[in-house]
Amino acid sequence: MATADFASFSVPLLSAIVGGVIVLLFFADYFRRKRAEVSTITATDNAARPVASKPPPPAPASKKSHHQKPHAHSAADKDHNRKHHHLDVNTLKGHGDSVTSLCFSSDGRNLATACADGAIRVFRLDDASSKSFKFLKINLPAGAHPTAIAFSEGSSSVVVAAQMLSGSTLFMYGGVGAKPSGDSKQQAKLPVPEVKWEHQKIHDQSSVLNLSAASATYGSADGSTIIASCSEETSIKLWHGKSGKEVGAVDTNQLKNNMAELSPNGRFIAAAAFTADVKVWEIIYSKDGSVKEVLKGMQLKGHKSAVTSLSFTPNSEQIITASKDGTIRVWNINVRYHLDEDPKTLKVFPIPLHDAKGAVSSYDHMCISPDGKILATTSGSTLQWLCADTGNVLDTAEKAHEGDITGIAWAAKSLPMGGVPAMVLATSGSDKKVKLWLAPESRSS
């Protein structure tokens, strides 16, 4: 009886055990296959993505190993050297923010910069290839954001336009002319620059786009520096550089200004605005050399779209304009406009710069070299040199700055470059840098 009971009990138990074993074997095989699948997927993913290689073993120690930079820096240096443009000769550092404007003194040896960090700096350029430059830093009043700068009298004073809560203010600082680098004693004795004159809200609430300065030598002018301030709206004002007296004003009546520039001899002022025409006024001087009046002179008509930038030639008889219509025009303004003689278009060149999509780029800034042979132009972060006679490209520096180029200026005279005189161009950028560039070899064919 007991044996029968045991037999009847052991059969279900044995079946349960066998079933459990079968289930365990099934799950064991399932998980084995899943692990194999996961391993396969992982191996596939690892094959698809780049495999991080082990860092190379350290190089054998050498006598100079303690002077070498870390590997990451070396790679960055190689990349920098690869991108280095052969005309890029120096970089002026020390700015705390975007450099908004720059200009050279008449002798070319001093370079003034305006920076969004609220300061202006005057660099002494005794040699363009120097590893370091002495500079004078002037902090503007609190809340003043400099937008433009120009030398006033030679290299001894600068005029800076700054945007404030009340509008734009002009400051003239005297005693900024830096002495030669070797004259350390005189450098130490330089008086602290002080404000010689100041004008507030010169264009109401509008900011100043650019300042242009010229030594007035035309006709009966006495050689004084005249400065033009161009507002972002439609007004342009003329100032006597030394006294600060307002000597003239014009209204472009052309929506908004792009820029304004004085001719090198102080005779004309030309304005580019958001229209296809360029307006030119003549500054009339009295017998005593002072500004008598500003008269409407002529209009340059021929472009089909807005003129973005312009530049007078060194002899003040021609204007070069660049437009969104994709062309550059050279105009003869040495005409008897008061006898209704119109300015003539001498040459038309296509803008040779294109963006990534193949569209013609617009030039933001233009500046012609002191000898009148090379036209330097900028578009965004690209710097380009053209032959002023033919419009042919002499050289191009893409990504000349790590950001947009904000200003451009040629040194009026050759600068020493390792003991050899050289024609030098300066550019400023939103990357907190000012760069010095050699002029490319000019060729007319």
UniProtKB/TrEMBL annotation:
One Pfam entry for this protein is WD40
- Show the coiled coil region(s): none
Q: What sections of the protein cross the membrane?
A: 6-27
Q: Which UniProt keywords apply?
A: Membrane, Repeat, Transmembrane, Transmembrane helix, WD repeat
- Superkingdom as given in the UniProt entry: Eukaryota
The biased composition feature labelled Basic residues covers 63-72
- Provide the residue span(s) of the region labelled Disordered: 46-83
Q: Which InterPro entries does the record cross-reference, listed alphabetically?
A: WD40/YVTN_repeat-like_dom_sf, WD40_repeat_CS, WD40_repeat_dom_sf, WD40_rpt
Q: Where are the WD repeats?
A: 92-133, 300-334
PANTHER family attached to this UniProt entry: OS03G0858400 PROTEIN (PTHR45282:SF2)
Q: What is this protein called?
A: Transducin beta-like protein 2
* Species of the source: Canna indica (Indian-shot)
